[in-house]
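Record minuted for everyone:
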Amino acid sequence: MKLAKTEEQLMQYLWKMEKAFMKDLLSAYPDPKPATTTIATLLKRMSDKGFVGYKIFGNSREYFPLIKKKDYFANHFKSLIKDFFNDSPSQFASFFTSSTDLNREELEALKKEIDKKLNSK
């Protein structure tokens, strides 16, 4: 399942803080800050989707992510390759290396990472 762009932005703050109350999340936003009701609605939707959990402390809720950032983006990335590159990582790699303005040093670093992965298999 995927998060909407506004949910993903909120999730970024939550991943960074690891756990937070509403006031903490609101303070993370730049001005003009969203309304408290907007953040509450996003948190409710994210909770319903299984991305966010919470503990109740009196009248307050402390929110925390139920999915790791790495896991979310790995699934998101796999979906991107499937949907836009015919489920072909090599098509993605070709697109990525030809569409970005990587210099020789960056390409060498990328090659080194690929070689390291190949050697571990």
The longest strand covers residues 52-57.
